[in-house]
Structure prediction request, 123 residues.
Amino acid sequence: MKRASFVAVGLLLLVAGCVVGSEVAIEPQDPELVEAGAELYAAHCAECHGSDLQGTDQGPSHLSIIYEPNHHADGAFLFAVQNGVRAHHWDFGDMPPIEGLNPEEVEAIIAFVRERQRVEGFE
Ligand code: HEC
Prediction:
């Protein structure tokens, strides 16, 4: 009996750990990067992902929980911008590669997205 309840508690902790662990606490981002990123995002990403990050009829919301850092790490953003994305999570179609952004600019965009995710929370 005792042993069984230990196991049950252990399982509960495991499950709770997974739930908490899937939402990483996002660190506050460098305000200068965030500001630069906001402009770049508006110019290059908002057309599909929305100026408020909440998506449009052409692309998904970056506040969706699937874009939290554990599921889509910063590298996924750089990869998406450089190579485009084949539609796999949604029905908006493919994302084309986005021309004319260097890695530093993408870094600023990521800082902006992470800051909005941190402040607004996920959907
Ligand atoms: C022409 C429309 C369009 C533009 C412009 C656009 N995206 Fe996307 N993006 C999409 C669509 C559509 C998807 C969803 C694909 C899918 O079904 O998973 C997507 C997905 C993504 C993903 C998820 C990648 C993955 O691995 O699942 C990231 C990150 C992303 N976009 C970042 C950006 C950034 C940053 C910019 C601006 C530099 C940008 N996008 C501009 C349409 C766009």
Observations:
- The two ends are 41 Å apart (CA to CA).
- The chain has a mean pLDDT of 89.
